[in-house]
Description:
The protein is an alpha/beta fold. It contains eleven helices and 14 strands. The chain has helices at residues 3-15, 37-47, 62-68, 74-83, 100-103, 117-126, 146-152, 194-203, 243-252, 270-285, 304-315; strands spanning 20-22, 29-33, 56-58, 88-93, 108-112, 130-131, 157-158, 171-178, 181-188, 210-212, 232-236, 262-263, 292-296, 318-320. The protein is globular and about 60 Å long. The mean pLDDT is 94. It binds threonylcarbamoyladenylate and magnesium ion (MG). Residues 133-134, 142 line the site of magnesium ion.
Amino acid sequence: xxxxxxxxxxxxxxxxxxxxxxxxxxxxxxxxxxxxxxxxxxxxxxxxxxxxxxxxxxxxxxxxxxxxxxxxxxxxxxxxxxxxxxxxxxxxxxxxxxxxxxxxxxxxxxxxxxxxxxxxxxxxxxxxxxxxxxxxxxxxxxxxxxxxxxxxxxxxxxxxxxxxxxxxxxxxxxxxxxxxxxxxxxxxxxxxxxxxxxxxxxxxxxxxxxxxxxxxxxxxxxxxxxxxxxxxxxxxxxxxxxxxxxxxxxxxxxxxxxxxxxxxxxxxxxxxxxxxxxxxxxxxxxxxxxxxxxxxxxxxxxxxxxxxxxxxxxxxxxxxxxxx
Length: 324
Ligand code: TXA
Ligand code: MG
């Protein structure tokens, strides 16, 4: 089937209240039209996702974004202008008509305009914005390829748009208007970095700083998330896994005595490291080894590395300090 036929097939399923997997530049999503309650319910059921975790609304144009929010502060307009379409989700006061399944009963809604042309086509073909979480079981590693989705959800129709270019979920920023002005809160770091957001605001002549809220501010971005099926550990600063550290890991996780871990080697270029991170996590889980270890080097920090380490820390069962 051609991609256009896939989109038509997906559209028909969506209109019937089914969910389909949609490619985006960040990760694959599990989509349902925001006006179709049975589809929205299916998302939570299929993902085994708790209802307290809100969904992101994906739009193909600004006009649709305007329909789901109650206000559109200058800071939101500036960020949308700079980073949409792209990996940035804006959390804003929700419009009255937005189904509370999407917002988990909150007064805010997350909106993003994906850059992937197939996602845009699917939203346009459906004629309605699509609510979509990442297409993985709740708490597990996000999919960056169609085959990842197929493995978790063999029964779901997938529109294959190739591997996701960014590889990490979108940056989530809440824009809050209060009596003392507008506040911006980074709820989840991503490829649109804090530095990029601050620079865009300066460029637009808006002076607000971006505060980093704790993970509890974003209901779904929990401490334990993105977890592979075998334990993943972070080793700070070491160049290799020493015998004594390996023995400690085996003991800590009650693994078999001879167990040899698999190293997850990060690309030194952060863009490539982000793009391949989840596929590498999955591959390392499939090697038959009992644990995954990843080295944190001092130079792998700042910019996009912050989002990469945010995900690795949430995926990790434990972090070991550098050996003396
Ligand atoms: O890149 C992405 O954002 C991908 C693709 C498919 O677009 N989607 C994604 O969705 O990562 P999900 O559901 O896995 O993560 C959405 C995150 C969750 O942590 C959720 O709690 C947060 O966004 N979120 C959504 N609406 C929110 C709101 N109104 N207030 C606070 N956090 C919100
Ligand atoms: Mg997710």
